[in-house]
Amino acid sequence: MPSLKEVKNRIASVQSTRKITSAMKMVASSKLHHAQQRIEQMRPYEQQLGRIFRAFVSDASEYVPYVTPRPVSRVALLLFTSNSSLCGGFNNNAIKSFTAKVAELRGQGIEIAQVFAVGRKGLDAVRRMGFTVEDTYCDYLDHPNYDGARQLAERLMASYDAKEIDACYMIYHHAQSSAHQVLRYEQYLPLNLPQEAEQGDSNYIVEPSSEVIFSRLLPRAITLSLFAALLDSLASEHAARVVAMQIATDNADELLRSLQLQYNKSRQSAITAELLDIVGGSMQ
Length: 284
Description:
The protein is of the alpha/beta class.
């Protein structure tokens, strides 16, 4: 049985750890709140842009870039993870999904021509798998902004224009709620558009033409789609960290109760032993 000093030292150590996990939970909660606010602020623009696309979708034809699918032989994969750990299975789940999709695509005879990793955890995993990553985008998570997403989107669109890739897929987490994150695998390029115009959205007078308007708005929609995935992944990371730190704090509380009970029992045993020694000595 450990001594009283050992138990007391362990109690102090667990209390110190609990303070850290509790503080990390509060920080993650604050970051999650800010990430959710940014997503909500973006939604009106996203919804209005979607209405415009639904109005012009009937005019979209093969002249519109990034929309018309073509035979797929070379693809790009875009993986979103985090820069740091202590967020439960957030990173491991995304990396496992990436590994499974790589095997699936290769099994279909499709070449993984380009890999882009947003997040140091994903970047390290991708490099361990033997992929060459020319540019890193890890700093986008520290300071998420539309311009950063635009640079990456333009890089992908340029690769698609040059026919270096025939399609691009994203792997990221969607924050369905603060306690539940859903891993998504979505086609990013070519962009999926609604098949039919929404009723009542087609009564527009378009100048100079639907073709010009559509071609100018389409890159913005592609960039917005990537920026939305970035914010969604970031919110999911913070939500996963809140849950992980809450579980760690609860475990620390349970361990503290167990250690305190052990300390009290050991202390009572020591007092009882001392009393027996005193009583035994007085009777001699």
